[in-house]
Structures are given as structure tokens and as C-alpha cells.
């Protein structure tokens, strides 16, 4: 366990989205190659359709995509055209309606604001920088609603619990169903307003250390 992981595990954070959603009835989606979900996919009923069907059937308040899961859903996206080996998801996806508020889980400052508009990319993205018990780290929020944070600037202080953005629409979020991609990053390296969210399995050991499980912040018991 790294020092950052230990600190995050011991700390209580503000909810990232409204608590009734974050801690409500959840559908945890398995998008790995072995998932039974793929047996329900046809030429007229894609995986997003099946997830929506399952969520409605169980009256789910949130759809959750798992951390460190291997997925083969990216390879037909333009953003992955030069990186077909990237298959492991390094964030947690929180599937909730577009325009749902997004709150800072702890005090931080705006490290970067960007709008990555390639097919399959993050769309509008914010990265916050934090200090906790002397350890610096970052949280990345992808697939946002651009209009919700137009007044923000790099360097702005964001307080724990402050709404600083909202969930984006499919039209602006890289083409995905509305959701938040939350990722923890210990060291940004040479990256500025972006950080890889789906990695090559050959590099997984590094990214597991540098991008610990976002459930350390979310504290969703269903993901323990």
C-alpha cells in the first residue's frame, strides 16, 4: 500500500455527485470480454442499450463502471486508432443523467481545464490538484458539461463540497452515454491538461501505482 493509498483510505470525502445518486441503488456493469452482457448485444441493440435496459429493470439510480477492468469497447473509436492495445480502464465511471452536479470531494485548485473532442475521448475535462497530509495528488473529471464551468480558471480554489461542473451530454462528451469518469493521479509526469484513462496491460503495474482506485474517494460499499 502506497502512502497516498493509506491517506485516502483513512479520509472521509464529500460526495462527488448528489449523495442519493452516489450511494443509491446501483447497477455495477461488467464490460470485460467474458461478461454475459455481450450475449444480449445485437446489431440493433448495442451495449449501451443493454445497460440502459438493465438499469431501468432494477430501478437503478446510478450505473457504475469498474476500475482496472479490461474492456474491448474502445478499439473502434477514433481516439484509440493509434493505440489498439489500450484496454484497461483506470477510473470509475458514474453513469447518471446529464447536467447532474459534480462536487469537489476535498479542497483543491484547478490544475487544468480542457475540451478533448475526439471520438471516444473525455470531452470537457477538469483536473484538480490536492494536498492531503502533505501528499500532493490530482483528481480528473471527464465527460463534463462545458457550459457548467465557463467561469472557472486555472488556479481557482475549489472547496470541498463545492459544485464546480456538471455531467455532460452525449453530444459533447466524446460520444458516450452521460457519465462521469473519475480518476486519481499521483504524478502527472509531463502531462498538462490530460491524462490517459485507458492503458495498455503491459504498462498496468505502473498505472495501478500511479492511479489508485477512485473508490478510495467514493467509498461505495458495493465496490469494496
Automatic annotation (TrEMBL):
<dbReference type="Pfam" id="PF01551">
    <property type="entry name" value="Peptidase_M23"/>
</dbReference>
<dbReference type="InterPro" id="IPR050570">
    <property type="entry name" value="Cell_wall_metabolism_enzyme"/>
</dbReference>
<dbReference type="InterPro" id="IPR011055">
    <property type="entry name" value="Dup_hybrid_motif"/>
</dbReference>
<dbReference type="GO" id="GO:0004222">
    <property type="term" value="F:metalloendopeptidase activity"/>
</dbReference>
<dbReference type="InterPro" id="IPR016047">
    <property type="entry name" value="M23ase_b-sheet_dom"/>
</dbReference>
<protein>
    <submittedName>
        <fullName>Peptidase M23</fullName>
    </submittedName>
</protein>
<feature type="domain" description="M23ase beta-sheet core">
    <location>
        <begin position="88"/>
        <end position="186"/>
    </location>
</feature>
